[in-house]
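Input.
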Amino acid sequence: MRTRSTRPAGFDRAADATRPRLLWRLLALAVASAVVLATAAAVPAPAGAPAATGTSTEPSSVSPAAPASSAPSAPSALAVPAEPAVLPEGVVDLPVEFTVDNVDRSRARCSADGEGYTVRGHLTAPASVLDDEAPAVMLLVHGTNTGEWIWRLDVQGRNFVHELAARGYASVTIDRLGYGSSDIPDGFASCSGAHSDIAHQVVEQLRAGDYELDSGHSRAPRSPVSFDTVFAGGHSSGALVAETAAVSFGGVDGLFLTGWAAVGVTTDTNRRFLTAYETCLGGGEPHTEPGDPTGYVRFDATIEDFLEGGLGPSADPAVTAAVEELWGPNPCGVMVSEPMAILYDLDLIGEIDVPVHLVFGSLDVLRQGVEGYPGLFTSSPAVTHTTLGDAGHFVTVDEGSERVYDEAAEWMERHTRTP
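Output.
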């Protein structure tokens, strides 16, 4: 397998080669970012687009996006022991690895180091589904300030992939490059567009069965499964990655997008982003441990910001306690390239020609005034959306997330190809 070590010895040459060029581009992006953040605060639906009032081109029980509401106060991080998530009966949860090139051939152009890396994650599915003649899977991509855990929270009843598998459907979650179990290069080595390219490479490998699968489980398939239907799901800016991959490369059968709109940026988002941006312009957060990769920053400067920005005030205290332990740094190159990626997205979103479902949290302090966003998908044959009335940004684990699990399964059933 072609891979880059996560140890520092392999990072220095790439960092030295790319850092000056990337820092110069960061400075150039500073002005553009201010413009983008202002632009993304409110973008109306184009003339003739369907109104964002819960209407759809297919039957659906989804509700309209809620009007903007005041930001909730930070939830209290009570030390409530969570009941660990238990794998449903008949479901397998298998480590997977994808060998990828850190390049950007997407339509959201940005700079990446071009090196090969390993992206790691899990395939979670009913064992019987993996034996189907034409199995379907949803690739789930996390956002900037989370990780694979947003889909796999270790709290019973709040683990998206467990709940989806219990309803009969397969999913693949990954830690994006620079996060969690995946390779961790210098934080300036990649960018949002490259992460879209990587997502596309993962989709292609899922279709071809060209990835590595831990087959040690007694009910695991002997070789990687080739999936006939591949959906892309995204949370927060992971949805931006999924949208960019879909419009740049095709190859996906639908988009399931949560906690995201390329419009409705709030003052809370601006404050967090610009603070982190300034840190990145200085090279990222300082590290005290020898060998730690450089060029990383926390999008939320404090744990209070992280919790308030993620969860609504009615969040289960056990969820809050579990999420609190997962506050981590993000690659600067990815985060600071997102404003321009949003501009590209707004220009291209009308070309997405696959079914789309969106999930909003009405108490999301990072996005408000998103009612017009579904109407921008003017080429999609089916656009549906729903809003969780008591949820914040982390809609996959917040209050009311059971509805998200139900809708994800129903949506996959509706759009899966039949042999």
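The domain at 8-72+84-300+329-415 is CATH 3.40.50.1820 (Rossmann fold).
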